[in-house]
Write a structure and sequence with these properties.
The complex is a heterodimer of chains A (187) and B (113).
Chain A (H helix, E strand, L loop, with lengths): L4 H8 L3 H22 L6 H15 L9 H20 L12 H10 L3 H20 L4 H12 L4 H8 L3 H23 L1
Chain B lengths: L2 H20 L9 H42 L11 H8 L5 H4 L12
Classes of the chains: A mainly alpha (187), B mainly alpha (113).
């Protein structure tokens, strides 16, 4: 836990300063999670604000401060999922509008080490984003939370509020689809 | 599981790890907090207006119910007559009224003959 229970209780009672502090502590982490869950970077801040907005208006429903983090991640997953569902532009990636030649020219122009590193990172992001476009938005989020964010099945169980076995089945199926797409690209 | 499959699984895991490293947590813009509070206040204002409107409707409905209750409670002289139906009918149409007790004439002549 990044914040103490007392701060959460104060925020639950309507203390704006306490809520502000919670946002400041979790903001970077939530922005990171959302940026990895979604392919469109320009919407990340908007979705993060939606998460904290939902947190503000639902904080009084939180049963115990101990479950604050799963609660916040559930709000994050739901907000990201709602946003992805609205967008339904799963094939649209940051550089997908450019032609092959434009990409090559951009790569050639980026000659320095920093630029090369950034180019490599961008390629990895695009490859994973395109692989994850093989599964539904909800499975994409589930896979991300498990494989990239490193959440355990127990944590996912708390976030999704479903049985571990159901999660395992769903994760296995989603991973198999991604694996199949990955295999066909590797050939 | 085939070794090829196992190898692919490992490479996918490595790719996910690389993705995690290639996507660090971004910093929030300076407008993040002011914008967030503006959105919270906007929603609060909307919720407040909605509550006030709902309260207004409830008050109006209560006032209307009260007014109707008072209206129904006031005794009206002609509303309930102690007379029976027959008595009321007899009062309204006395038997000596010409149109009721007048003679009926029958024209028996055949217009065709």
């Amino acid at each position: 836990m990044l914040v103490d229970f007392e701060l959460i209780k104060r925020a639950q009672k309507g203390d704006s300063a306490a809520f502000n502090e919670i946002v400041l502590v979790y903001r970077k982490r939530i922005l990171g999670r959302i940026s990895r869950l979604m392919a469109r970077s320009e919407d990340v801040e908007d979705v993060a604000q939606e998460v904290f907005l939902r947190l503000y208006f639902s904080l009084d429903q939180l049963r115990a401060p101990e479950v604050f983090e799963p609660w916040l991640y559930r709000l994050t997953v739901n907000a990201a999922y709602d946003h992805l569902r609205k967008q339904r532009r799963r094939q649209e990636f940051r550089i997908s509008d450019l032609s092959e030649q434009q990409v090559m020219m951009a790569d050639a122009a980026a000659g320095g080490k920093v630029e090369r590193d950034e180019r490599d990172r961008r390629k990895i992001r695009e490859l994973v984003d395109s692989l994850l476009s093989e599964v539904s938005e909800s499975d994409r989020i589930l896979l991300m939370m498990k494989e990239v964010e490193g959440l355990s099945l127990k944590e996912l169980e708390e976030i999704y509020n479903v049985k571990e076995n159901a999660l395992k089945v769903r994760l296995f199926r989603a991973r198999q689809r991604v694996l199949k797409a990955f295999g066909s690209r590797e050939r | 599981m085939s070794p090829l499959r196992g190898n692919l699984e490992e490479r996918l895991d490595a790719l996910f790890r690389a993705y995690r490293d290639a996507s660090p947590d971004p910093d929030a813009s300076p407008n993040f907090m002011p914008h967030l509070w503006r959105r919270i206040e906007a929603r609060q204002t909307f919720a407040f207006s909605l509550r006030r409107m709902a309260g207004g409707f409830v008050t109006a409905a209560l006032a209307l119910s009260l007014a109707l209750g008072v209206y129904m409670a006031i005794p009206r002289s002609q509303a309930y007559s102690p007379q029976s139906y027959i008595e009321a009918l007899a009062d309204a149409q006395p038997l000596d009224t010409p149109e009721i007790v007048g003679t009926v004439s029958l024209d028996l002549s055949d217009p065709g003959m």
